[in-house]
Amino acid sequence: MKTTLYFSTIIFATIIAFSGCKKDDQDNEQPTITLNSPVDGQVIIAGTDTSIICLNAVFSDNVQLKQYKINIHNAAGHGHKSTLTGWDTTIIQSLDGKSQIVDFDIDLSHFNIADTAHYHYMVYCLDQAGNESMVYRTIEIIWPGKK
Amino acid sequence: MLIFWVSSPALKAQTGRFRISGLVKDVNSVPLSNATIYLNGEFRKTYTDTSGRFHFPGLNSGEYTVKVTFVGFQQPSLAVFLKMDTLLEIKLQREIMQMDEVNIVEDRSKAIRQMQSVQVATISQASLLQTIAGSLVQSIGKSPGLASINITSGVAKPVIRGLSFNRVAVVENGVKQEGQQWGIDHGLEIDQYSVGKVDVIKGPLSFQYGSDAIGGVIILSDQPYPAPHSMDGSVVVTGKSNNDLIGISAYSAVRDKKSYFRVRLTMDDYGDVKVPADSFFYNGWQLSVNGKRLKNTAGKDYGIKLSTGMVDNWGMWSITLSDYFQKVGFFSGSHGMPDIYNLQDDGKSRNIDFPYQKVNHFKAIANTRLRIKNHWLEVDLGYQLNHRQEFSFPHTHGLGPQPEGNLEIDLLLNTLSGNVRYYFDKSEDRSLVVGISGQYQQNNHGGYYFLLPDYHAWSVGAYYFQQWVLSPGWHFNYSARFDIGHVHTQQFLEPVYKDPQTITGYIQRSPLIGKTFFNVSGGLGSSWQINPALSLKMNLGTGYKIPTAPELSSNGVHHGTFRHEMGDSTLTSERSFQLDLGLLYESKKISAGLSTFITWFPNFIYLSPTGEFSFLPDAGQIYRYRQSEALFTGGEFTFSIVLFRNIVYHNQSQYVYAGNLDDGYPLPFIPAASIRNSIRYELPKAGKNFRNIYGEIEIQTTASQNRVARNELKTPGYNLLNLSAGCTFLVGKQPIEMMFQVQNLTNENYLNHMSLYRMLNLPDPGINFILVVNIPFQFLLPQKSN
After folding, report:
1. What is the CATH number that goes with domain B216-780?
2. What is the ipTM of this complex?
């Protein structure tokens, strides 16, 4: 009986000791993305001088920002139709500090391989601890002369 | 022969509440623990404790039959007319000539049953049907210390005390099930109707089952054999309201004196899951759930199992062939991303659209048990073919040619296993087991996305186990095992394209790896019956896990998790050291159990976010397999009290703490603390035609999980109200068992921390009415007089 009590005490003491551990430098908070541009449903006509997709976003985190990523891909591929077009693009850039405003333009003025389609414009953000957040917009890219 | 007497105890039957208690011994008066005691057929059963005692509390007066089964002994059945509390002393005669009567199937967990110190939770087929859920893992997930990671309604993987994936071994007919357990969207490929009994062992049992048994073992046994010269079987029909499931499972077995043949066919077909929500909030968007049904979560499962064999006084042999097939949809948007386009209502609830997965698991298992004097030689051989495929439309492929077809990931795993064990029954109080086991695996990949290279792996181990009875009620055991394992992965080179036709070079996605691992493991255990009511179990053990090929070499996007998973070829064998302790108190009215454990891993392998994005299409950040010092601790508490006549209150609480000791963060996929409170009413007989009536109300309280890993979401707590009721109805002599459940009666809208769809903020299923009807049958066959 003594052994029982002895071991039970040890195990419970350990459980309590660890449960009571202070969350020292843990960061479980995701960074936030305020995406001002592009807006949902935005239509971009490719192949002209003004064919630019502008990113305007504010990234912020409670501790430290690390990276952001832009990915644009055809929105139709996920589900029902396999309308693959040759165009998708990924951009990864570093971030620093607790808050950063980013402007990044993607120029489609010489863009000539895509079909007219809906695209997902996805913006991801990571903080130093690996917490991730993502927002996306659905935009339409029209390529004159293509369906 | 059987010797028993019914004693008239001093207790008066003034309360009107009776119990049948008993003591099971062999002819030398040595108590037999873990014997199975059936009351009135298969419906209600219990097991003897370490001192050979059993109890059936809360009985009305009336006629009962008590049947005792224990491997190697005759199976007496006796009738009791209960007018007052009754104590039976049952002495079992060793079975020598009549092996037919012995249920050798039970032998498959013999080493474990003999190992008195481990904590085993046993779930019978009858209680499985009473608590049936979407899959075997979810159906047994209510047992203390267990949980499940749910992928969809019919796909789940087992979790024992916070450990899962390759840390829980599932053993059927002596052979470890080998699928793609490392994957988050893999589920256990077992037809839940085909399982006769489930034994869950919490804690490392690497000594017997090798690498994957570091967290625990789930041992699945077949149905009992039919009686000689008889035919038996059953038809089970299941209906569920939540996903409109219709299921049927038909089983039949026939046996002459010694040889038998058994067959089971199962079919389940289900539609999309209903949730108590019209919309969910994901990444800043309020997305609608059309008709409150999660689009494309329908599926179907088929199972077939054939077995034949012979049982005789020299032992038995059997061959079992089984195939399990499942096709199940992934929620639209769980690959890629949910948005208003792919969540548009397609007007159908039973169709399986893209993305979906197909799994086929084929097994051929041969088992032999040979009696050699008092000893037993056991041989298990198995071949398994696991074929897992994910289908999805390709939509991003860089500059290369457009992938052909919709097969995204295709994994084909061949496994050959062999186990040989020898049981020395030295004397009544000393037993010894030696064994060797080996396994060879080959995995090939296909599909247009690369995740995992081709690999082969083999392992061989030898072990030794010994147990003594030091004094009556005090057992001591120790075990030791030595292993050697090898993993060999192929290099995978991916072409780099300038345009869809021109390859400009290659990048290495996975390197060539050839690694050999040596491991020594073992344990010490003891069980002690302190007094007739109180017993203690204690184990100190070490387990290990060889890094799996995915942990060493994967490099690709795991769809459904949005992450790029990357292996690390420098990983070493994971090791664990565990102390567990179980205290059990059982008196006439009260039974209480407390189990605690503490497990330290010097180098726990887990997927950790790196804080760096992947360039691969569809991926978020890179998750890399890492090793860290980790600690798991916690426990389970159970408490039952007989409140009134036939009414029992039951409480079950559990908690797991898991932390990475290197960086202080918690570990991912750890179940939240939970408490189940239930009140159950049981009546063995009512009127002429009703038997085994029960009704239960349960409140399941799950705490919030705020201890989360990096990039894991916190999950709020919730309460669920569940009901169940059932009875056996006699039509003439034909029993018809009916089992009814209502899960989530209040249609609570909640998130499950252990669900794969938690990361999409999708709620768990709403109210679910489940009806199971089981029609058993049995005929005696004419026998020849020779």
Report:
1. 2.40.170.20
2. 0.81
